[in-house]
Design brief:
It is a single chain. The chain contains ten helices and seven strands. By secondary structure, the chain is of the alpha+beta class. Strands 1, 2, 3, 4 and 5 form a five-stranded antiparallel beta sheet that branches. A two-stranded parallel ribbon has the order 6-7. α1 crosses α5 and α2 packs across α10. The N and C termini lie close together (about 10 Å).
Length: about 300
Amino acid sequence: MDRDDFIIRVYCLVCEHYQVIQRTYRLRQGGFAPALSDEEVITIEVCGEYFKCGTDKDIFDYFRAHYQHFFPRLTDRTLFVRQAANLWRVKAEIQRRLTIVSGQAADPVQIIDTLPLPVCVYTRSPRDRCFKPDADYGYCAAKEMLYYGFKLGLRIARSGMITHFPLLPARPHDIQLLDDLLEGFTGLVPADKGFIDAFRQALLAERHGIIVITAPRRGMTTPHSPALLKVCAHIRKCVETVGSHLTERFAVTRIRAHDLWHFQHRLIRKILAHTVGVFLNLQLGRPPLDLDGLVTA
């Protein structure tokens, strides 16, 4: 599909789920109606993120320049940015509904991982005052990177759709964050070697029916068969692809904000944009993680 068709599809999708959310939650207490509808604002944000417009200014400028005929009331950037930030809960709820409607939230096999989220360059971190005391120093072994910020927890279905994305502290080791990543889930969980902990894994299996499968380190024994380990290693590649999407296309590691609230709202819309892309691919019978080929022009 071309960009016009993509925007229309996203708008219809947002309208469908927004109406359900509106019947469940009271979104506004009163006052004048905004110039742009909430559905239009969310559509602009999702499509802007997919088109690699990483900031509020870039998204506004792109749609003002190229899609004024679609959104004639898009005239004031300040009002657009404020309305977009206030809709963070709606966007999170739409993302959750998409995982349920698509059936991906009920997938009995879901992969977990974490992704570093720096909030500023490392040399500036001692002077940073925006995220204290929430942000902290962390280390990403996969990228051999010291950073200052947070961790993004990822739990994804086998299709690649993100089903859970808690914002986690950067300092603790991944194994200490296992409960946050597995909240509300029961089933099989392929994970990398950073989640090896025989005691915790036995406890999760006994109390919650969660079986965490990790590749053994050299010299370790494992109760799992080589065939199961091979399948899980293959499945785990999906979370690496999703992490690459979030880092490169959606630029989650380059979010710049002055407070945690704005940081989280921008993070949520990037996750929603990724989920919408996977959802549309599933609807069209395409490879779920082929986001580049979803829009051809």
